[in-house]
């Protein structure tokens, strides 16, 4: 087909519905930064402290989080990235291709619910910092106990909704700026409180060896028992949660939307940057901060919210980290919820659907249970959408190996796939049935549910015609994909190459941001390793909190100015 006819054929098609063009692919640094930015966030304060409250033991935390996060990284590497790179499609578009519009709408409804709740939890977390400034009591019930807290949530949530509607691209870039600062601050906060914990347990602020760390952990952080004295969760539960926490994105394949831009399948390993900096180091650091704040205030960790913990670990910087980390995570998830809603209500703009979903999200955020129950919420969210990942895995990976045809539903012009919808419904009954019967730890329910879905969908798809001969349709599909590549190659000629900002001003700004982080880390190390007595510890802690706030401002001022200069250069 002549190139002008190909251009006419695809010019009116939304770019999101086409496979990603070769000139749009990214290198490894993009994915390392992306996963660091998304997985070192406000949720880490909640989850890290929750492990303490659930009574995990120190060795189980150190080993369990290592194994669980390694399994999660391998899931992105071996499941999500290969399918995304081979198809260059998001899960939404792939699902529409193999299961029809009806299934896609059901799936989008599920995503609206999931991402709205996660976004609500982050708004609540950010609000805990602001409520601390106004001396409003901690919200520890499932319902709000203060009218003023509700007003704070509405104010904070309104900002999140407006940004998700109109300014998300800026916030997405700002999240990448936040990633290195968040990583340093999480470690610095734990360093700032650890000598106090050491004195509480050992009677000495100095930690001389690894055995001291284990002793402090066993006695005051991860004791192996809950606050009520009951036996806590064990190694298998810790591994299971670390693996299941992001099952919605790896086994559930939502991160196909990210890895469709990857040049190589092995870039799935770069999810480990987020897992080991965010879900390993940050969870452990958050647990230390929570336990340390509880010791300082002579209370239990279950009586504290993230605002309490952050302030006593970091001083004024604690307010900054809670608000920024909460906002960046809430905005990303509310944006996803708005996109999913717009896919359902196609006659309305994304801005309008995001606004409506945002109002519901803010109402949910007024109820503190959404952040206090993050572990089960994330696990059940994964159980809800993992079957969809199983359907896609079966279609893309398994079908060609057993003589069935990919995209058979598309070739039959099916808009409502009975095998896909039926498999999802049966899988939910199976998974939640296992949970009701208490057959196994609910952290691992996503695995048998995923396998059940694959078997069920394969059998039903064969019954409905996946084993027929589609040679003509396959040839037409191959021709269409070739034409798409030709169209995208023609369009790429008009694209502007990225221009790096190498000006002296930007180099100075980048240097200031790096030096600011090094100074924060230096003062944190002074507290951790050079506090020979409680008196010196208090002096060092006070110095750290002052300079941490000053150089946090310096970091964001320089890093964000550099970001804006780079974006302006490529505008």
UniProtKB/TrEMBL annotation:
The chain crosses the membrane at residues 61-85, 106-134, 146-168, 180-202, 238-261, 273-297, 309-332, 353-371, 377-398, 418-436, 442-460, 508-532, 544-563. Keywords: Membrane, Transmembrane, Transmembrane helix. It comes from the Bacteria. This is Cytosine permease. PANTHER family: CYTOSINE PERMEASE (PTHR30569:SF0), CYTOSINE TRANSPORTER CODB (PTHR30569). It comes from Zhongshania guokunii. InterPro entries: CodB (IPR030191).
């Amino acid at each position: 087909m002549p190139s002008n006819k190909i251009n006419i054929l695809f010019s009116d098609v939304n770019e999101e519905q086409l496979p990603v063009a070769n000139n749009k692919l990214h290198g490894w640094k993009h994915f390392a930064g992306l996963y660091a930015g998304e997985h070192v966030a406000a949720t880490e304060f909640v989850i890290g402290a929750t492990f303490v409250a659930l009574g995990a033991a120190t060795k189980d935390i150190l080993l369990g989080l290592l194994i669980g996060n390694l399994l999660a990284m391998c899931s992105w590497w071996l499941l999500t990235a290969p399918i995304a790179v081979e198809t260059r499609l998001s899960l939404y578009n792939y699902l529409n291709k193999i299961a029809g519009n009806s299934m896609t709408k059901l799936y989008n409804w599920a995503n609206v619910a999931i991402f709205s709740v996660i976004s609500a939890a982050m708004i609540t977390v950010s609000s805990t910092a602001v409520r601390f400034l106004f001396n409003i009591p901690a919200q520890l019930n499932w319902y709000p106990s203060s009218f003023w807290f509700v007003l704070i949530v509405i104010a904070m949530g309104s900002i999140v909704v407006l940004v998700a509607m109109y300014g998300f691209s800026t916030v997405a870039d700002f999240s990448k700026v936040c990633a290195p600062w968040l990583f340093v601050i999480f470690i610095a906060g734990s360093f700032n409180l650890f000598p106090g914990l050491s004195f509480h347990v050992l009677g000495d602020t100095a930690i001389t060896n690894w055995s001291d760390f284990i002793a402090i952990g066993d006695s005051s952080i991860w004791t192996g028992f809950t606050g009520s004295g009951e036996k806590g969760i064990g190694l298998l539960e810790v591994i299971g949660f670390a693996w299941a926490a992001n099952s919605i994105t790896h086994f559930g394949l939502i991160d196909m939307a990210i890895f469709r831009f990857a040049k190589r399948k092995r870039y799935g390993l770069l999810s480990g940057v987020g897992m080991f900096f965010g879900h390993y180091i940050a969870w452990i650091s958050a647990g230390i901060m929570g336990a340390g704040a509880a010791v300082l205030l002579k209370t239990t960790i279950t009586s504290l919210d993230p605002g309490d913990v952050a302030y006593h670990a970091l001083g004024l910087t604690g307010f900054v980290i809670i608000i920024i980390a909460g906002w960046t995570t809430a905005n990303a998830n509310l944006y996803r919820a708005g996109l999913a809603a717009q896919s359902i209500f196609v006659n309305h703009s994304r801005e309008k659907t995001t606004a409506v979903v945002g109002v519901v999200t803010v109402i949910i955020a007024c109820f503190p249970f959404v952040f206090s129950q993050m572990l089960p919420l994330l696990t059940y969210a994964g159980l809800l959408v993992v079957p969809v990942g199983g359907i896609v895995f079966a279609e893309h990976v398994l079908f060609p190996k057993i003589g069935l045809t990919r995209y058979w539903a598309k070739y039959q012009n099916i808009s409502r796939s009975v095998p896909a919808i039926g498999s999802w419904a049966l899988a939910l009954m199976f998974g939640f049935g296992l949970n009701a019967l208490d057959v196994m730890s609910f952290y691992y329910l996503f695995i048998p549910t995923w396998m059940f879905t694959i078997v069920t969908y394969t059998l039903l798809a064969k019954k409905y015609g996946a084993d027929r001969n589609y040679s003509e349709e396959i040839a037409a599909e191959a021709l269409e994909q070739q034409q798409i590549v030709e169209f995208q190659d023609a369009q790429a000629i008009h694209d502007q190459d990225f221009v790096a900002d190498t000006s002296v001003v930007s180099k100075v700004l980048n240097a200031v941001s790096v030096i600011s982080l090094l100074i924060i880390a230096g003062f944190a190390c002074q507290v951790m390793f050079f506090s020979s007595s409680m008196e010196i510890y208090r002096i060092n802690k006070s110095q750290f909190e002052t300079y941490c706030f000053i150089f946090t401002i310096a970091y964001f001022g320089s890093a964000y100015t550099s970001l804006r200069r780079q974006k302006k250069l490529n505008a």
